């Protein structure tokens, strides 16, 4: 029986269908470097329970009473140093957009695939882009959190946010979430190539290569987060691919926040230590970041280099992230094509 006799094939509302969406999602970024843009962004980021796991009763007074009064100014200044002035946005957004556009080009042989990109915090939001994909007829979506190593505070929160939006939809698309690819040979080879390419441009030879990953509190690791192990595996495979050993390669962790102990060794302390041990020439890379951003351009290319030189180091080079390079896109494309199997 037709539940609505007025609904005939001729006047059925237009429905788009038959497409598969690929949604690339990175962390996010403020809209500007001014106090209010920074505050809005940090408030959203630091209210996320996957990022700060402390009781809200304890955390919110600190967040709203201290952190959101002081940090927006301080971090806004840091963002200003690395802002993409041509597009008036951060490089994280510039590279993520470019990765989306290049991915669409690369998947042209799959005419039913639509590629889009979003940010976990700030704009464009995951909800907005899921709606846009649905509008274009995507009944299936490959949701790709752009993190090679899994962490609850990055990968899981992207997935949570997407499913939170799906909870509101009458007609949900089918969703596949992309697993971590920390040990994918294409990823390791692309990282190794990026090291070789940077070294080829230098007129000096680094004595030590430091692979610096974003840290997480040790308590998250003890609670079962595999992030530390994923970082260590990426590090080991990269060390082997480059023919290095424990005397000229190491894994460190950066960007600690708050009073807790984070994963160690810390990158900034390591810079001091290496210089004090008499190491004069160091290269640092950030294998866990798919795109250069505040944490790589300011904290590593800027600050870590200064710390090293301040303590007696002589030569320092930051190896760029894979960004939207040919090699970087090869990695993302390989992962996406694998996850599209049976769908596209
Ligand atoms: C407890 C706080 C934080 C955890 C845990 C955390 C994990 C984590 N973050 C990234 C990647 C990025 N973080 C970035 C910025 C950033 N991270 C935190 C805090 C935690 N991150 C803060 C407060 C900030 C903002 C800047 C600041 O106030 O210091 C960025 C850069 C974004 C940009 O626009 O450039 C990235 C990328 C990972 C991979 C990770 C856990 C594995
Ligand atoms: Fe972070
Ligand atoms: Fe930082």
UniProtKB/TrEMBL annotation:
Organism: Neorhizobium turbinariae
EC number assigned by the record: 4.98.1.1
Catalyzed chemical reaction(s): Fe-coproporphyrin III + 2 H(+) = coproporphyrin III + Fe(2+); heme b + 2 H(+) = protoporphyrin IX + Fe(2+)
Localization, UniProt: Cytoplasm
Binding residues annotated for Fe(2+), in chain numbering: 214, 295
Main localisation: cytoplasm
Role of this protein: Catalyzes the ferrous insertion into protoporphyrin IX.
Top-level taxon of origin: Bacteria
Name used for this protein in its record: Ferrochelatase
Keyword list, A-Z: Cytoplasm, Heme biosynthesis, Iron, Lyase, Metal-binding, Porphyrin biosynthesis
GO molecular-function term, one example from the UniProt record: lyase activity
HAMAP family found in the cross-reference section: Ferrochelatase (MF_00323)
PANTHER family cross-referenced by the UniProt entry: FERROCHELATASE, FERROCHELATASE, MITOCHONDRIAL
Similarity annotation: Belongs to the ferrochelatase family.
Gene3D superfamilies given in the database record: 3.40.50.1400
GN (gene name): hemH
Pathways involved: Porphyrin-containing compound metabolism; protoheme biosynthesis; protoheme from protoporphyrin-IX: step 1/1
């Amino acid at each position: 029986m037709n539940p609505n006799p007025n609904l005939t094939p001729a006047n059925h509302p237009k429905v788009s269908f038959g497409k598969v969406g690929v949604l690339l999602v990175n962390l996010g970024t403020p809209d500007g470097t001014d106090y209010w843009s920074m505050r809005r962004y940090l408030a959203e980021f630091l209210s996320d329970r996957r990022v700060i796991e402390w009781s809200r009763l304890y955390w919110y007074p600190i967040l709203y009473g201290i952190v959101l009064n002081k940090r927006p100014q301080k971090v806004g200044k840091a963002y200003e140093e690395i802002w993409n002035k041509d597009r008036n946005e951060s490089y994280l957004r510039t590279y993520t957009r470019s990765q989306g556009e290049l991915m669409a080009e690369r998947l042209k042989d799959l005419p039913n695939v639509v590629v889009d990109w979003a940010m976990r915090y700030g704009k464009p939001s995951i909800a907005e882009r899921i709606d846009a994909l649905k509008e274009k007829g995507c009944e299936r979506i490959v949701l790709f959190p752009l993190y090679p190593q899994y962490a609850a505070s990055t990968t899981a929160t992207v997935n949570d946010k997407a499913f939170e939006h799906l909870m509101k939809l009458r007609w949900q698309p089918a969703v596949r979430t992309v697993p971590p690819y920390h040990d994918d040979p294409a990823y390791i080879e692309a990282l190794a190539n990026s090291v070789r390419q940077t070294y080829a441009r230098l007129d000096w030879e680094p004595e030590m290569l430091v692979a610096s990953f974003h840290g997480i509190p040790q308590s998250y690791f003890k609670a079962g987060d595999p992030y530390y192990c994923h970082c260590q595996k990426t590090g080991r495979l990269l060390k082997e691919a480059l023919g290095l050993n424990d005397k000229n390669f190491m894994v460190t962790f950066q960007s600690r926040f708050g009073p807790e102990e984070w994963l160690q060794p810390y990158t900034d302390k390591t810079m001091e230590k290496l210089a004090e041990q008499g190491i004069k020439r160091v290269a640092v890379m950030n294998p866990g970041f798919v795109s250069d951003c505040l944490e790589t351009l300011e904290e590593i290319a800027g600050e870590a280099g200064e710390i090293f030189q301040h303590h007696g180091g002589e030569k320092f080079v930051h190896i760029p992230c894979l960004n939207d390079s040919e090699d970087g896109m090869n990695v993302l494309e390989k992962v996406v094509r694998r996850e599209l199997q049976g769908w596209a």
